[in-house]
Design brief:
By secondary structure, the protein is an alpha+beta fold. Helix content is 52%, strand content 8%.
């Protein structure tokens, strides 16, 4: 992004000339659309619109704009990109519920047509036959309760492996990067659920995927910024396009190898064990099914796997990292979680996924963490047809940004919204039959709590994320005390957030683990 801004400064005389030239077209358009009543808009600048009001912490910039100008705004990003900014639970309900179908598409990703998987991904796919088919496949097969039950063993084994890695540092009183360990845990879980044990056993492949995920996040942010440059958008692809193509190529090589291995197993009759079937096995079944509602290609399979890694690896690990950081900064909450776990496990076994329904305070901690630090602080939609929100017109093709971060820190919805108070969720948990059903929470709380978005484009992996987060955080609390900092003498964890598309911690979570309970003794 910095490189792009420097180029913009160098080209500023040319940009001004472009603005003068295109302003005539803008004027004509405004005249023809005079009857349209758009939402309020803050003061803007020529050509760049409201870009000067945005920072690398996009969710905080949007929050500041909504605090000053209202919960529904019309923004102009660059010379041609229009954006509807939604920042309250009431307006989010209009997008996620009242006009859910109208807002069921996503904005087209910048330069998607030039990237190998650009138009084949599930997350960014427009609303249509392919997206509906993949959503149904996620609900009934890929991320269904049945498949999550099958993969419970995988999550249990990877959590145990993670604990053993931490235990290796205990005797030397060695500090570890807890965030990096949680990243390795989520990456291995995702690899094994998607591709069986191959990726987990070949550590170099799992590490390759983790690095590719990180590069993809960074490149996506830079390419998306280029998408607002109007007539100069090619500048962004010129600077970052070659690297984006290289990342896609390396992904393709790795995923093609995985598909060939699975196909060889199919031909040899080695996929008969139902409990060993992973997500690639299921998708290959659909790929070869002549009667399937939609014929998915190998590219569709690869794109879905890329979506899975990008959406489920960094984000889940970062959320767990925030949860541990808040617990370390609130020792009384940490002790409450531990006491609750020990009342269930009797301190003779490791906490398990099946214990979660009996651990309401743990769930409250996880939900309070997600309220304060949603994995994707801003979720996007695109309006498919003209509609109205709060008496304002929203033209078709308008991009929409729903600021989940601002909604879940809104003082009109939450008491002391910036404070970590898990107890606020206990009252809601007591009223529910299923205490980890996020969708029930969203309905009860009128879209005040939407860490994974809402409506039909809400995250289909919500249940998986909750299960893994609750169990992993519980295991880290049950087994270890944690001293903050390299020397173990830190008093508080620095809770500053970094920049980027996800909500990551600015500084690594460095701690010294001290054994409290070793589940592997004896």
């Amino acid at each position: 992004m910095i490189e792009t801004l420097l180029l913009l400064l160098c080209l500023s005389p040319f940009l001004i000339a472009c603005f003068v030239f295109f302003s005539s077209f803008t004027t004509v358009k405004s005249t023809t659309a005079a009857a349209t009543i758009l939402p309020p808009t803050p003061p803007s600048l020529p050509f760049i619109g409201h870009l000067h009001l945005l920072s690398t912490s996009l969710h905080k910039s949007f929050q500041s704009l909504s605090s000053n100008h209202g919960p529904l705004l019309h923004l102009r990003l660059g010379p041609s990109r229009r954006l509807l900014l939604v920042s309250s639970a009431a307006t989010a309900a209009e997008v996620f519920k009242t006009h859910d179908l109208a807002f069921s598409s996503r904005p087209a990703f910048a330069f998607a047509e030039r990237l190998p998987y650009g138009n084949s991904g599930f997350i960014t796919a427009p609303y249509g036959p392919y997206w509906r088919f993949m959503k149904k496949l996620c609900v009934t097969e890929l991320l269904s309760v049945r498949q999550l039950d099958r993969s419970m063993r995988i999550r249990k084994e990877e959590i145990e492996r993670s604990l053993k890695r931490v235990l290796q540092n205990v005797h030397g009183n060695v500090a570890i990067d807890l965030g990096a360990e949680l990243m390795k845990l989520t990456n291995n879980v995702t690899c094994r659920m998607a591709m069986s044990t191959r990726c987990s056993e070949k550590c170099e492949e799992a590490e390759k995927i983790r690095k590719l995920v990180k590069e993809s996040f960074e490149l996506a942010a830079k390419l998306c910024f280029g998408d607002v440059l109007g007539c100069l958008k090619e500048l962004s692809f010129w600077v970052y396009g070659k690297k984006a193509m290289d990342v896609s190529r390396r992904y393709d090589e790795l995923l093609e190898k995985v598909l060939k291995e699975h196909e060889e197993k199919r031909l040899s009759g080695g996929d008969g064990n139902e409990s060993e079937r992973d997500l690639v096995d299921i998708m290959l079944d659909v790929h070869h099914d002549a009667q399937a509602e939609f014929k998915i290609t190998r590219t569709h399979i690869k794109a879905f796997l890329m979506d899975l890694f990008i959406a489920g690896t960094d984000t889940s690990a970062e959320a767990m990292q925030w949860a541990m950081a808040e617990l370390l900064n609130h020792p009384e909450a940490f002790q409450k979680v531990r006491n609750e776990i020990e009342s269930v496990t009797q301190n003779v076994r490791l906490v398990e996924e099946s214990d979660i329904p009996n651990l309401p305070y743990l769930q409250a901690v996880v939900k309070e963490t997600l309220r304060l630090y949603p994995p994707g602080p801003v979720t996007t939609r695109e309006c498919r047809q003209d509609c109205k929100i709060n008496c304002f017109d929203v033209p078709a093709k308008t991009a929409v940004a729903v600021n989940l971060y601002a909604i879940m820190r809104d003082p009109d919805s939450w008491d002391d919204p910036n404070e970590f108070r898990p107890e606020r969720f206990l009252v809601f948990l007591r009223e529910q039959d299923d205490p980890i059903d996020d969708q029930s929470d969203a309905k009860r709380m009128s879209f005040n709590f939407v860490p994974f978005g809402g409506g039909r484009r809400g995250c289909p992996g919500t249940m998986l994320a909750f299960n893994l987060m609750n169990t992993a955080v519980a295991a880290m609390v049950e087994c270890f005390d944690w001293k903050i900092g390299e020397d173990g003498k830190g008093e508080k964890v620095d809770m500053q957030s970094g920049s980027g598309m996800s909500l990551n911690m600015l500084h690594p979570l460095i701690c010294i683990p001290v054994v409290h309970f070793n589940p592997f003794d004896g």
